[in-house]
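seq:
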Amino acid sequence: MPWQFTIYTWILLATTLLSLGMAIYIYYKRHISNRVLFIVTIIMAAEWALAATIETAVPTIALKSLFSKIEYIGALSSPVFFLLYIMDYTQLATKWLKNWQWTLWLIPGVSLLLVFTNEWHHLIWSGFSWSAAGSNILTYHHAIVFFIATSYPLLLLLFSVAFLLRFVVTNPAFHKTTVFYYILCLIFPFSFTIIYQLGLSPVEGLDITPISVLFAVLIVTLGITRQKLFNLVPVARHLLIEKMNNGILVLDKFQHILDFNPATAKMFGIDKLAIGKKAYHVIPAFKHFLNEIASTAERQSTIYFDKPEPRWYEINKTPLVDNKGHSLGNLLVITDITQQKKDEQQLQKLNAQLLESENKLKEINNQKDKLFSIIAHDLKNPFQALIGFSELLYEDTENYSIPEIKEMSGNIFKAANQGFEILTNLLDWSRSQTNRIEFRPVDTNLNKFLARSVSQIDLFSSGKDIKVEFYPSEEARVMIDRNMIDTVMRNLLTNAIKFSYPGSKVEVFFKKNTDSCIVSVKDNGTGIPPEALASLFRIDIKQTTVGTSGEQGTGLGLILCKEFIEKHGGKIWVESTPGKGSEFLFSLPITTSSKSPATS
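struct:
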């Protein structure tokens, strides 16, 4: 009997050709994510339609049953391939499901085995008969396993729909059109299979399920031509978004989290449970920023996190709007700029150090100028006196009386003493500036130390008939570098004597506080003008005054005192009234009880 080509044959042949054409078209659309699975799905559907085409044309029951069996290869496998494609498209499948996806093939595999061995058990078809509608249609009498085998693809289609609906909920609105077309494609195979299972086919015995492929292909074609369907597929999302170092965070207009990539999850320690929650609940540091992004304008901001470690993030907000300009939400691109900020801080630190070095260099230059001034001027005066008076004595000794010789020798003594004082201070100051004076504090009895300092100045004070008195106080022990404090006391006492009137008195005493002792050197001399007090301890401003007996000074002694006292962690200051005298005070740390006492 010859083959019979009916209207159903041509419809199914057109379905086959359209499906193959669609597979070839998608093959050349290389931007479609994992297009191989989609192509295989369409090829399996084409195989199903082709086998059904031949089944409608062959004349015998044996041939029809053979090609019906072949139909099941595409009918059972295409839903599995499509579900795998949707799982990859949406990226919503759990790790467990990905590891166990091979189990999706168990029921199709068993079903195909039963289909091709039906003659032995009749679990798929219990028998066959020709349809009363004619047109070479064979009616298949189905057994129980048929309903199980054909219901499984329906279940897979439902899973596909579930993944697509969840994808719409958790992703920006511009994917909705794509998902709509996919779901519309699934409606036809799903509904046609139910109709055939229930025996409600419009033509008795006709299997209309392969024809559903035609409608599905037409829907895809419509989506491609009118809505540019595959242009909206998440293009290589796994490579483009998932592998980005920058964080990607998608929010709806109510600031709920719709999607984020692994970089964002790593930055803020969040997981998929964050989907659907308010962003500032999941990432509290975003709250201030999110309160300011209501507008549709682009915006950039920097956010600082101090836990678990200091980090800075730069956030670039891009509004998501529909074709009518209505807000759909916001896309946040998050960049970790911690290293950049640390580099900026390091640069600021280096700039500060550079500025500090520059200031120190200026200070050194001022000190150099001061040093040259001392050498050029202050040392010149005493040496001129020494040379002048010694020259007179050397050349005309026999012409001078004993009182005149005594006077000139006294002037020589004063000049030598002044020169010695200048040189001593200059030497100590230069050693201090070059860190050649080692700071060695020791536990010291302050009463005994000050008493010795006062006794060492007697020779200088007696020349002006000035009495230096020390008033001992309660027992006090201090941690001091004795050489440094000796220098401080010598300078303060010689200054006090220099600016005191002959026959007056200089007083030395100290007061013990909780953690320090305040030492005072007080005179009743000329005092210091108010305008000179502010610059008294500055090296860059020359501050010298002639003493009550014409004594010259360098101004370096007080600067040296300030440096030495500050090395001890103390401070020095002065209280003075012009015409009534001055009082220089400085503080020294007291020895704590934990330190063992030493000899004074």
